[in-house]
Specification:
disordered N terminus; three-stranded antiparallel β-sheet; Porin; 14-stranded antiparallel beta barrel
Length: about 500
C-alpha cells in the first residue's frame, strides 16, 4: 500500500460526496414522515379519499368537505428511535426518546338554514398544524483496523493549493493541527499524519486505524395549514389550502481516528489520535399550496385526487468545525483548532407531489388506498437574494440531484371496522419508495410502516389511539473521497444503517 510522490492538479470533490452532502438537505425538506392524528397513523396514512380528519386534509384538502359538524382535535404521543450500525463487522446501536405534539387543529362547518341535498350543501374553513417530520436520532458507529482515513479526504481537497489558499474549514484545520504537511520541496502537495516518506521517496501508511463517530440529531418539520372547501350535492367535495412549513434541525457530529501502531510509529510527531467536530444548525420556512377533489360515484365508493405544489424554502444554515490532534513525541503534544463561526442563506425548491386515492366505505367498516408520486430529481438549490457566492456549491448540487435522484412511489393501505357502535379497530401499512437510484446506493432507502389502533366515538367526543413501527435502511459515510486519485488510497465503504421508529399517538377531539 504505497504511492510514488508526484505533482498533480487539484480535483473537485468526488460525486459520491456531493450526493451525500446534498442528500442531507434535500431529504430533510422534501421527504415527509407519517404523523398527525392517531386515526391517520392507525390507517397507515391512507386518508386521501376518506376526509373528515385533520390529517386527511393535509393529504387531500377536499377532505374538509366531508365534515358534517365543526371539530377541534389535538394529538400527542411518544416516539422511540433505535439506530443500528454495521461497519466492517463492528456493530453498534443507540436510541432516542421524544414527546412530540403531532397535530392540533379546528374545522368550522357552515350549512344553509334549511338542509339541502343539491348545490352547495356545506362550506368549511380549517386551521391547523401537522408535524410532517421528526429528526431526533442518536447515531454511533465504529470500525477497527482500517486503512482508510478522513485525512486522505483533506489531502485531496488541499492538493493544488498553497497553504494560504486552504480556506477556513476542513483541510485548513487539519493543516493547522499538524495533521497535514507539505511534501518536501512542494508548495501545493500534501501528505497526512498517518503517512511517512520512505527512503525510496514514497508515501507509506504502515499502520491501521480505528474509527468512531457519534452524531446527535434534533429537530422537526411542521406545517401550518389554512384550508377552504365545500360539499357539492353530497357527490363532490372540493378543497384548497395555503400552507406554511417550518424546519428546525440541529446536528452535532463528532469523529475520532486512533492510531493502532500495528507496525511502527510514524513521522516526527507520531500522531496518536485526532478528533473532528462539526456542528450544523438549519432553520427554514416555506410556502406551498394544495388542491384536491373527492368524488362519490356511488355511496359506497370515494375517489380522490390531489396536487401539492413544490415548497419554496428560504434556509439559513449555520455551522462551525473543530479539530483536535494528540501526538506522542511532540514537545507540545496536542493542538486544538477552531474554524470561524459561519452562516449562509440559500433557497430550496422541493418537488411537487401527486396523490390518487380510493376508498370503499361500508356500514360496518372501510378500506382505503393512497398512491403518491414525487419526483425528487426536480428539487433545486438556488442562491438567496444576491448571494451568488454560493453558486459554486448550488450548481454542482443541482447537477448531482439530476444524476442520483429519481421519482419515488408511495403506497398506503388502511382498513377500519366497527367492533361495537362506539368502538372501532384499525390496521394500516405503507411503503415509501427510495428517492435515490439503486445503482448509487447499496441499501434500499425505501421506508415501510406497519400500524394498528383503536377509536372510540360518541356524538360529541372521540378518542383514538395508534401504534406504528417504521423501518428504513440507508448508507452512511463518515467521510468519502475518490480512491482513484492516488493508487495508494483504500476505497471507503459505507456504514450500513438500520432505523426502527416506534410511535404511539393519542388524539382527543370534540364535535360541536
Amino acid at each position: 500500500m504505497k504511492r510514488i510522490i508526484f505533482s498533480a492538479t487539484a480535483l473537485l470533490m468526488c460525486s459520491g460526496l456531493l450526493m451525500a452532502q446534498g442528500e442531507s438537505d434535500i431529504l430533510l425538506m422534501s421527504r415527509t414522515q407519517m404523523n398527525g392524528t392517531a386515526r391517520s397513523v392507525a390507517l397507515g396514512g391512507a386518508m386521501g379519499a376518506l376526509g373528515g380528519d385533520m390529517s386527511s386534509i393535509a393529504i387531500n384538502p377536499a377532505g374538509i368537505g366531508v365534515y358534517r359538524s365543526s371539530e377541534f382535535a389535538f394529538t400527542t404521543g411518544v416516539n422511540y428511535n433505535g439506530t443500528y450500525t454495521d461497519y466492517h463487522g463492528t456493530k453498534m446501536n443507540d436510541e432516542h426518546f421524544n414527546l412530540p405534539i403531532n397535530q392540533i387543529g379546528y374545522v368550522g362547518t357552515w350549512m344553509p338554514m334549511r338542509e339541502v341535498n343539491n348545490g352547495v350543501v356545506s362550506t368549511h374553513f380549517g386551521i391547523g398544524y401537522n408535524r410532517i417530520n421528526g429528526f431526533d436520532q442518536n447515531f454511533i458507529m465504529g470500525g477497527n483496523s482500517l486503512k482508510s482515513s478522513m485525512l486522505s479526504r483533506f489531502v485531496i481537497d488541499a492538493t493544488g493549493k498553497a497553504t494560504n489558499q486552504l480556506g477556513s474549514f476542513g483541510a485548513e484545520l487539519a493543516y493547522d493541527a499538524y495533521l497535514l504537511d507539505l511534501l518536501p520541496g512542494m508548495e501545493s502537495e500534501y501528505y497526512q499524519a498517518h503517512e511517512y516518506i520512505s527512503d525510496q521517496n514514497q508515501i507509506v501508511m504502515p499502520n491501521t486505524i480505528n474509527q468512531r463517530q457519534k452524531i446527535e440529531k434534533n429537530g422537526y418539520g411542521g406545517e401550518y395549514a389554512f384550508t377552504f372547501g365545500m360539499n357539492v350535492s353530497n357527490l363532490i367535495q372540493l378543497g384548497a389550502s395555503l400552507n406554511f412549513q417550518s424546519l428546525v434541525y440541529d446536528e452535532n457530529n463528532a469523529y475520532r481516528e486512533q492510531n493502532n501502531y500495528d507496525v511502527i510509529a510514524v513521522g516526527p510527531l507520531d500522531v496518536d489520535y485526532f478528533e473532528y467536530y462539526r456542528n450544523t444548525n438549519l432553520r427554514g420556512t416555506s410556502i406551498n399550496a394544495k388542491l384536491g377533489v373527492i368524488v362519490r360515484p356511488i355511496q359506497q365508493l370515494r375517489v380522490g385526487l390531489a396536487y401539492h405544489t413544490p415548497n419554496w424554502y428560504q434556509v439559513t444554515q449555520e455551522y462551525n468545525e473543530r479539530m483536535v490532534s494528540h501526538f506522542h513525541a511532540a514537545e507540545n503534544n496536542h493542538a486544538i483548532v477552531d474554524s470561524p463561526y459561519s452562516d449562509m442563506e440559500y433557497k430550496f425548491r422541493t418537488p411537487g407531489k401527486f396523490v390518487a386515492s380510493i376508498a370503499g366505505v361500508m356500514e360496518r367498516g372501510l378500506v382505503s388506498v393512497d398512491y403518491e408520486y414525487t419526483d425528487y430529481s426536480q428539487a433545486k438549490f438556488t442562491p438567496a437574494g444576491g448571494n451568488f457566492d454560493i453558486d459554486n456549491v448550488t450548481d454542482p448540487l443541482n447537477q448531482s440531484i439530476s444524476i442520483y435522484y429519481q421519482p419515488a412511489h408511495t403506497i398506503r393501505v388502511g382498513a377500519e371496522m366497527k367492533l361495537t357502535d362506539q368502538l372501532l379497530g384499525r390496521l394500516g401499512a405503507g411503503y415509501y419508495g427510495s428517492p435515490i437510484k439503486s445503482e448509487y446506493t447499496i441499501s434500499d432507502m425505501a421506508r415501510t410502516t406497519y400500524s394498528a389502533g383503536l377509536g372510540y366515538r360518541t356524538n360529541f367526543f372521540f378518542c383514538d389511539v395508534a401504534y406504528m413501527m417504521a423501518t428504513q435502511k440507508e448508507d452512511h459515510y463518515a467521510f468519502n473521497y475518490d480512491a482513484s486519485v492516488y493508487d495508494y488510497l483504500e476505497p471507503v465503504s459505507p456504514v450500513a444503517v438500520s432505523q426502527y421508529n416506534h410511535q404511539v399517538s393519542v388524539t382527543f377531539g370534540w364535535k360541536f
